[in-house]
Write a structure and sequence with these properties.
The chain is mostly beta strands and 304 residues long. It contains 2 helices and 21 strands. The strands form 4 sheets. It has a 7-stranded antiparallel sheet with strand order 1-19-16-21-14-13-12, with no helix packed on it.
């Protein structure tokens, strides 16, 4: 398997060779990150890394933490596949996240993740528009003592976050698409990180002829990340209205199987749980559910 740094921006294809692609879970690229200390590394599965986004999974064993702190020149969003986990930000925020919950972490926020449970935890992450700068890992990383935590020695030297974290528990609406869970530019300026509980996801309906539930964890000028829930069929299978996006997208199957149909290309692909489908900008697709139960996918879209 290739080194993580060697595939950055060009897996499973180079940016000039994008095409609709089914990526089976056994085809994900595996690595430890950081790669030089298994004791403080997470188990990383890279699904897609291209010029517009990075999508992957990382795992932490019971009692584990990845170290040192990490940072990205883009926003990062989480979907907790198997929790609970505690996401730690360098500014003193600690988000306790259960299975199915999400997280919005703005560009430039130092972070790491802890597993205080007795089971392995798994996190699906989406980073856009850029996951890494030229230096991987960063050349200068703050030590734990330089961040804020309980009785931290430098707490009084770091910004007070109490008035910078917004309340996101209000009912959302269609006009919030592109601005969820908060104004992204403000979050990037303050470094505030937001746990998005199940009741705090931005709910909407995709399509009118064949409605599908769409639940945003994050939605801003960098990208959109959340859940598609397609109900079971009635007379024949249930399918979503066809859609296409201005930017690249990927669909990760949480509960399937589900069929991805490309009506203009007259092609279809079946996703089993943990499989992913990459959709280049401008390609029309729809979801088809042949099961007697709802199916669920996580969507990662750079531009709607």
């Amino acid at each position: 398997m290739a080194k993580l740094f060697d595939i950055m921006g060009k897996f499973p294809f180079s940016p000039d060779e994008k095409k609709p692609t089914l990526i089976r879970k056994q085809d994900y690229s595996t690595a430890l990150y950081p790669p030089n200390n298994a004791f403080t590394s997470d188990n990383t599965f890279t699904i897609v890394t291209t010029d517009t986004f990075m999508l992957g999974i990382y795992e932490l064993g019971p009692g584990g933490v990845f170290a040192p702190l990490d940072i990205h020149p883009g926003d990062e969003s989480y979907y907790i596949l198997q929790g609970p986990v505690v996401q730690r930000s360098g500014n003193g925020q600690f988000a306790y996240l259960e299975t199915g919950e999400g997280l919005f972490m703005p560009e430039g926020a130092w972070h790491c993740c802890h597993n205080f449970s007795d089971k392995k935890t798994r996190i699906l992450y989406f980073i856009t528009p850029k996951a890494w700068s030229e230096q991987i890992p960063p050349a200068v990383i703050p030590t734990d003592e330089e961040t804020k935590f309980y009785k931290g020695p430098n707490n009084d030297k770091l910004p007070n976050m109490r008035d910078k974290i917004k309340d996101i528990s209000r009912q959302g609406c269609t006009d919030d698409i592109g601005h969820w869970p908060v104004d992204a530019s403000e979050a990037r300026a303050t470094g505030a990180v937001y746990a998005v509980r199940d009741f705090e996801k931005l709910n909407n309906v995709h399509g009118t002829k064949h409605p599908m539930l769409m639940r945003f964890i994050t939605s801003n000028d960098y990208g959109h990340f959340g859940e598609f829930i397609l109900p079971a069929g009635g007379y024949g299978p249930r399918c979503s209205d066809p859609d296409k996006h201005k930017g690249d997208a990927a669909l990760y199957c949480v509960d399937g199987p589900v069929t991805v149909n490309l009506p203009e290309l007259e092609e279809s692909f079946i996703l089993e749980p943990e499989d992913t489908f990459f959709i280049p900008a401008g390609v029309s697709y729809q979801l088809v559910n042949f099961e007697a139960k709802p199916v669920k996918l996580v969507f990662a879209i750079t531009e709607l």
